């Protein structure tokens, strides 16, 4: 990332003249906005905290909370711009929306939502995903939109006959802001399989879907209800007057911004780490975790651990996705925050995290025999249908604070490491560079070292590692605005990132430690052997 600070005059002029671009990301726990100049330098940011809810055994976010959260996030952005630049944000050149990939949002012909939003965390689509995998000859994960759709069809749900279109969270917000029902190809690749050659939905698999007995009586074709697919830089509409009023009810933000194709959080992570070319990869770690490795060629055969998706430019990517990452770790650290309060210690949460994370690295390489399962929801990588957070140890385990923290850090990447072994060892996929981003990497060198040891590969993290998603979407928005103004002189996304955005990037690179690699391998073997206990917990504990 180009992190050179803009001068006050240059930054203010960029904002005042409407040359900045805005990226918005609806993440699992925060809605974030990032404003950047034409070279990708961050000018301002805003955020709003939100949480999913388990309603009727369905992980969901209320649509009212989507808009309430966006209003609060944009208000925070406005306040930051006023405080730092002493001006009002009224116009942006480019605007892009990113969101959690996958899930299910279905609407009727009047645009009315038919059922509550079903997020990627829901794992009740097992039968539907299995049927699709068999029909397509490609792994179709439980969380993909087409799995949720077929699940609803197979369940005879009343709303199925009234479906006019389905989309993702980013696609829904984009359509409301622009009037265009489109998806960026990376987000679309988590809805339905993509043909790498045509950069569109795979026609053969669309035909295979229509041939399923379960959908014989539905009154729509799948192709007719899916959003249009676009690659990065293509025309995705503009911010309408209605969309501007919806996004910013104060009326400050004016219409007219070039809209970038809406993307998923996986795509923005690739952009934010400049890992969009073959043999590069990144790990995004937050509430969930996923690794993206850009392939030299598409993998053959079916591997249930590996999803085949794309970069925002449409290149094939192998994705290792896990439903769980930092959620349980955060819960434990909150308990330590509460304990510090009981002692009367007024300690900043970030400082406490740094203290505990760093102390964790002093523990035994195998975490002293302590096991932690961070499963707030089911975990397909390890065959756990219904997750329960679980901490367990043998009588002779070395139960120290350092080992406790280390075990939970190990657990954050446990399922991911399981899937990555399949990709790197069994499938022999080449990986030259791996980049990390997400909140767990804010404490320099800790989670980064754990991940390097877990995967036995070097891991690089930039100074922007904690805020990658919204910044990555802002870069895609700036790229869209640049392409719209290019008058036919276009560049590729990879060229734009290399020549404009990542010209002065500073990365902190951590090499795997031999003892840490052996220790994590021993811990992971222990972790796998204990999975029957985790599965039993899901069956017996409420």
UniProtKB/TrEMBL annotation:
Signal peptide residues on this chain, from the entry's feature table: none
Pfam families named among the record's database cross-references: FGGY_C (PF02782), FGGY_N (PF00370)
Key word Transferase present: yes
Species the sequence originates in: Paramicrobacterium chengjingii
Coiled coil feature spans: none
Protein name: ATPase
Matches recorded under SUPFAM superfamilies: Actin-like ATPase domain
Domain Carbohydrate kinase FGGY C-terminal as annotated: residue spans: 282-481
Keywords per UniProt: Carbohydrate metabolism, Kinase, Transferase, Xylose metabolism
InterPro entries to which the protein is assigned, alphabetical: ATPase_NBD, FGGY_C, FGGY_Carb_Kinase, FGGY_N
Family indicated by similarity: Belongs to the FGGY kinase family.
Domain Carbohydrate kinase FGGY N-terminal: 22-246
